[in-house]
Design goal:
Strand content: over 45%
Order of helices and strands: HEEEEEEEEEHEEEEEE
Helix content: 10-25%
Number of domains: 3
Distance between the termini: 78 Å
Shape: elongated
Strand order of the largest sheet: 4-3-2-1-5
Oligomer: single chain
Largest sheet: 5 strands, antiparallel
Structural class: mainly beta
Length: 213
């Protein structure tokens, strides 16, 4: 009898232990008088978590008593590449776009029906939970395009961003061949304006057509 009481006590305590796992940005499932709902944790309020519910359904409170599950933000296996296509689909809205700028923490995405790119942080579940990246699609570069790449010297701790004007594309090797279109400042002894270079697709951080300038 005592053993059954202990098991029942553990079951009742379980929502409290789940509640303690919540952090800002987590997707939290609650169950209350309105039924089972999900939302992203935004801030603490009187010991509870304020949730912004999915599907623009308003807000709710996650408490120690009604919290059923907690999901942490989805992490990318590897950052997307400039030029990659992606899909945003939250169940109510579906949009397709192209990655135009990438760094270690975020990306800028130009959606097909937008005039300006959107900044998306990789740790933002309100975006990343609904994004699918076309992992097999390689960016489409053409002669005459411009790409921004990073030149680094790890021993000296130096780096510099520069533009390359693309002359030729080797998609099989994922290499771009072209001429340096920036006047080097940090690497002025190693490189010069107009110098022929090869840049890996993976080192491209921004991609523009000549008409974009």
């Amino acid at each position: 009898m005592a053993e059954k009481n202990d098991q029942a006590s553990k079951k009742r305590a379980n929502p409290k232990s789940i509640f303690r796992q919540i952090a800002k940005g987590d997707l939290v499932t609650i169950r209350d008088n309105a039924g089972e709902r999900k939302g992203h944790a935004t801030r603490r309020e009187y010991g509870n978590w304020v949730l912004v519910l999915e599907r623009n359904a308003g807000a709710a409170l996650a408490t120690k008593e009604n919290t059923m599950a907690v999901s942490k933000p989805r992490k990318l296996d590897q950052p997307p590449r400039v030029g990659q296509r992606l899909v945003y689909d939250d169940g109510g809205r579906r949009s397709m776009g192209k990655v135009v700028v990438v760094d270690s923490r975020s990306m800028h995405v130009l959606f097909d029906k937008s005039m300006e790119p959107s900044l998306i942080q990789f740790n933002d579940p309100e975006w990343m939970d609904y994004i699918s990246i076309e992992s097999d699609a390689l960016p489409k570069y053409e002669a005459g395009d411009y790409v921004k790449f990073q030149m680094t010297d790890e021993r000296a701790g130096a780096s510099e961003w520069m533009w390359l004007r693309v002359d030729r594309v080797d998609a099989a090797s994922q290499l771009l061949f072209g001429r340096l279109d920036s006047q080097p400042v940090v690497f002025d002894k190693e490189l010069s304006l107009g110098q022929e270079l090869a840049v890996k697709f993976s080192n491209v951080r921004e991609h523009k057509k000549a008409s974009d300038f």
